[in-house]
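Regression report. Comparing outputs from two consecutive submissions.

Submission 1:
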Amino acid sequence: MSVNKILKTLRLIEAQVKDYIIPSVTRVSKSKDPYRVLISCLLSLRTKDKTTINASQRLFKVADSPESMLKLTVGKLRRLIYPVGFYRNKSKVILSLSRRLIEEYSGKVPGSLHALLGLNGVGRKTANLVLGLGFGIPAICVDTHVHRISNRLGWVSTNNPEETELALQKIIPRGKWIKLNTILVSFGQNLCFPVSPFCSRCDVYGFCKRRGVGKSR
């Protein structure tokens, strides 16, 4: 698929999802605070969006900086973020990460991929989301939605998220990198499901290779 056709497809998807509720981490990013984005990303792993945003809002009313986070006990933190997935382990990770930010980065979230990946609990997906939504640094965050949809549409033919990220960097203009995740996650959460996607409602049906689609609606 040509770059022009990919961009046309992306514009159509963006127009179709504009009235949907945006992903939880994107909502948190409106604060322009990399620390909030980072913590919200960690909470979102294996957790539904509604649960993530509610837990983030509860937590940030009490603690929204590494310094204030370390004033919480593990038990208090667990209660604030429950019922996010793996909330017990995430509580320990958040406290450990906050302590390291204070000790090594003067309480600030580092703004480089290498430094972010060096933080406990931070993988490539989280690091790229923090760079893009937290710092405004062009980065493509590839989660399950972006990986699945990019392959389904025929934009790429890849086996894992890291391959997808590298492939998308070659075909998506840099100015579109940051918003790509928000657009495709909204699309994946509302229409382009892993199983039985709403192909009958999709505005880009005619541009889609429908790779991996069995039964649709």
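Submission 2:
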Amino acid sequence: MVRSGLEMLMQYKDFANVQVMEHPLIRHKISLMRKTDTGTYEFRKLVEEVAALEGYEALRDLPLKEVEITTPLEKTMAPMIDGKKLAIVPILRAGLGMVPGVQVLAPLAKVGHIGLYRDPVTHEPHDYYCKLPDPIDQRLIVVVDPMLATGGSAVDAINSIKNHGGKNIKFMCIIAAPEGIEKLAKAHPDIEIYVGCVDRELNDNAYILPGLGDAGDRIFGTK
């Protein structure tokens, strides 16, 4: 049985940088994603919708400034986002599915890319591509990947961003295994981690159980 987000929050209470979502819409949409009869189009749209709901929470501390605008009746001062230095960085390839959901909230955000693949035997991540918006050190960076399994890819991706000068980093995933949360939270205690749902465990092939299968294959319709 999948433990609830509240139970997992209790388990990870020592990790101040981990936030497990409890919104009923997120939980409902993730349940739809898990179903084997959810088709590619529907699955892709659900990924985008969950990413937008999580992004709403992750971006709640964006800075504001007062600017002068003109309404149909008069000029007034109104709050608007201060600057446009936001970067969305998907971990390829599955992370691409979450980008449109975050872009709905922040359409002017720049998009970088980090390419990693997992060794089928060791399950360790290997880099093959990294392209980040410049100047990366001045941006709020939201790293997205639907699945946080062993945590190796997320840790490696954030290491790479930091090596390129990135400082203000958040990580968003839809489903996580306990092992992945612990590894990422310990490796990067300075970043905020947003998790849609925490599942039970990893199997022998490092897939999340009960999970939803291979997120990349289900987003892009590949097998």
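Expected: both submissions complete independently.
Actual: both completed, but the second showed a warning that disappeared on reload.
Relevant detail on submission 2: The two ends are 27 Å apart (CA to CA).
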